[in-house]
Design a protein that fits this description.
By secondary structure, the chain is of the alpha+beta class. It has one domain. The chain contains two helices and five strands. Strands 1, 2, 3, 4 and 5 form a five-stranded antiparallel beta sheet that branches. A hairpin with a 2-residue loop joins strand 2 and strand 3.
Length: about 100
């Protein structure tokens, strides 16, 4: 099985890794030494498959599809990172309130 990796992006100091294997696209990110991941399955368009089988296109997905898929994964990763930081801040604030009482 061929695994394709994409450029690593950063968000709020957390790296976001992207990869593709078969019709599965996955992101992995590390937040506070914890790994978070999710994947989505996306089938290539019929025309792209035909072009790939005829050896006209080098890959099953076109650049526009890759861009859209990676944007979806980035949004998911950013949501997870934001939620993790928000939960962490709320826990710190709650601990401070308990100390003040």
């Amino acid at each position: 099985m061929k695994i394709k990796t994409f450029q690593v992006k950063q968000y709020r100091g957390c790296p976001i890794y992207y990869r593709n294997f078969g019709s599965h696209f996955e992101y992995l990110t590390v937040v506070n030494n914890q790994i978070y991941t999710a994947h989505i399955s996306v089938r290539p368009t019929t025309i792209n498959l035909i072009l790939y089988w005829l050896k006209i296109a080098p890959e099953k997905y076109c650049d526009k599809q890759y861009k859209n898929i990676l944007e979806i994964l980035r949004r998911i990763a950013v949501t997870v990172i934001e939620k993790t930081f928000k939960d962490e801040k709320e826990a710190r604030d709650k601990a401070k309130k308990n100390i003040i009482k």
